[in-house]
Amino acid sequence: MDFISLWLAYQLNVVSPTPDLARDFSNEEMQLVFQIASTEQPSQLAEPTVEQRSATKSNSNVSSDADQEPLTVKINNLGQGLQVAFNDNNGNDLSSFWSGVLNTLRESVMRIIKTLQNLIINVPEGETEEEAELVSEPTFSQLRYLGIKDINNLTRLSAREINDFAPMAKKPVVSPDVEKLRLASVEKLDQQPKYNQFEPQVGTRFHDDGSVTLRVLVGNDFERLHVIGDFNNWGEAENLADYQLQPTAKNPHIHAVTLPPDDYHKKQYRLVDQDGEQRLDLGATMLSTPAFNERFYDTLSSEQLNSIFWKPTANQNQEQPSPLDLRGKQLTIAEADVLSLALKWQCQNPHSGFYGDTGEEHIPRLYNFVRECGLPEAMAKLGYNTVEFMPLDTHVDFWQPDAEYLPDWRYSYQTISFYGKHPDFGSPDELRQMIDAFHETDVAVLLDVVYSHYSPRGNNPPREFAPVGFSQYVGEDGNELYAGNLTEWGTRRFNYTPEVRQNLIDAGLVNLIDYGFDGLRIDNVNGIDAQPNGREFLRELTEAVDAYRPQAVVIGEGYFGDPILNRSRDAGGAGLLTTYSDRFYLWFTENLLKYTEEIDTWKLDHMLSEDWSLAMLYYPGNHDEFANPGNSFQARGRYLADAIDGGEHNQKIRSWSALTMFASSYYLDMFQLWTMQEGNLNSNSPVDWSQLTKPEVAQMVQFQGDMKRFFRSQPAFAPYNMHRNMLHWVDHENKVIVFERIDYETGQRVYAVTNLGDHAIENYALPVFPEEAKFEIALDSDREIYGGEGNNPTYTQAQDHKVEFSLDAYGVVGLVQADGYQPVPATDIPDEAPIKRTGFNDEPFYTEKYRP
């Protein structure tokens, strides 16, 4: 942190002048910080020392009157005080070094203050006396991270400004081009649930008398298993026969038992077979971890890896909320793991016991921390309507509470149970409550699930998984029930037999129905599709989701553009909503680092024109791309700001991300992209919220949120409104890409313009339809709030099929038709005559046929 940043952060209560920060500066530098600050209080005769100021702040539990001032007033006072300090010091006999500093930094600091004044919008009022009595103010040394109040100060719109997921009143008008594709996402638009009740084949059910029914997929009818735990002295009780599972009449490979009445909640258990070999119940709600044991038990008789009975909390006074309806909606997805999202987030909710703390201090209660401390609201304010969490199913150990290291997200993909939820971050009830908190802010929650492979090994003694895990379950033929082929990562593919497929499908439905997730992201779909019966599994999974929860979505991590994956099942497809585009991202990551004139827009033109019908999900980066290294000429393996490392050229992130958003109806990124932090997801995974104190980052974050809201609010971007000429214009000379999106119900057109190049263009002329319609410039990266110059008006009038506007370097403009709607005919439309495009030298350099 440089000197000026320290001063600003200190004045805005972002950081404190702790010894860790102060040791990087000389006493003279620190004194000047406080000298400038003291000009806000002219009556103060003597400036306290650094030690006195730090001690005063750290011991204060009640904010001063000055601290209660609105932040806008504070900033104005700071600007006046800074100017006074500069003027006073002009006549002082400072060293040549400090004279140079003051002269060169005066103007830049004033610009920063002006920018901050522009960014402070809807500053919340001070806390009420009632709130102040609940929890004392955090000490000054705690105010080192950002929280929801800071996000509120950086965003214009409330979280509920756009209600993306309200149920559809009727099936929307579908474009003729999309109608021909037989997309699964379109054919389920008006589908209703077939079933109202769901019960998985395996799992536990608690009864009013204290008994529990346990059902397990054993895989054969000849084994006899007993349930052992503290409740029967781990198999030493005389009535052990009461704990024996028996094959069920409906399916003899499913064994069941109703245990005698007892208090089973939180009890740990295992299964033991007729030969005395123990195994885990892989359908259990949880498997134990050191973090869970430390939090939930005063004493524990076993430190080994065990299954856990968990009785869900009944919400008798709360009506079951209607599920969010994601059908037909454009999605702006934030991919995240819970820890990275919350680690450096500060709780600013005075009603919470976490008040003033960060997520790093409450890892075993992270679900509660996220729910109580405003992160769901923050994601909505930042423009996302969906959060996709990396796997939360039980996986190999990655953390112990006393460890010096933090959990590593990569272990979450080494799954050892697809029913149980990994309890390091909280209980199943707390996970449900966290999901409900996202729903209250109209943010959907997807879960990344690994149904393509599993870890046969994992964990150190006494918590080994291999001897008690998947390998202990055998089929009727004596072979391992779950085991398929080995993968290159050392994991095993599933053997997609009918009963294993049903077991995985039930696990997916548990996520949607019991936990309230709004959809699934299937990891490594291509790996599933390549296995025997793999495609059948995908079809059965999406069929079950549509039968029980048609409002939910299933996204596949498939990279090779197979159109069968997202076609409807009736058309022979797998029924997925969308899949990824590997060849687009390869183009993206290679061309991003090129000079403007080297960008291959010809290949982009061909690729987007050819791939539109695949209805793919595009992204500027995800957990794989921000972690796995690529070649030196690629941006892979690094956050984009780290890869570009170009000062002003970091604005590339703005227009290149817009390219990925406007090319489809489904968009995904990670928020680390927008904080413009260094490193990659392996070396620097936590979201660095403090980056938002930098004006250039705050402006970028404001823009990306507004861009997402623009994308979500225009029906023309909906998946059922796609058409074959969405790629409207490719200006190969200037590297400008234009998309035409149409709302086929009203005929309203939206033109999304992205400048991939590094030079601004004045009076950029764009062919549009209708001929003389009026367009609102609804999105413009050149606005002052984003650090631009504000050259464009709010509205522009088309003349002779053209509109003109200013387009800044790496600029993004969104034009929304404001009048003259003309509904599009349902029949094919003939091509128009070519339109000439005039270049800077007044010579025509490009022609394009476009569809009105």
TrEMBL record:
Q: What keywords are annotated for this sequence in UniProt?
A: Transferase
The record's family statement is: Belongs to the glycosyl hydrolase 13 family. GlgB subfamily.
**EC no.?**
2.4.1.18
- Segments carrying the region annotation (Disordered) are 43-68, 826-852
Q: GO annotations under biological process?
A: carbohydrate metabolic process
Q: Name one GO molecular function term.
A: cation binding
Protein name per the record: 1,4-alpha-glucan branching enzyme
Spans of biased composition, class Polar residues?
43-65
The chain positions of domain Glycosyl hydrolase family 13 catalytic read 361-704
* Superkingdom assignment: Bacteria
Entry-linked Pfam families:
Alpha-amylase_C (PF02806)
Catalysed reaction(s)? Answer: Transfers a segment of a (1->4)-alpha-D-glucan chain to a primary hydroxy group in a similar glucan chain
Instruction: Name the enzyme group at the top EC level.
Output: transferase
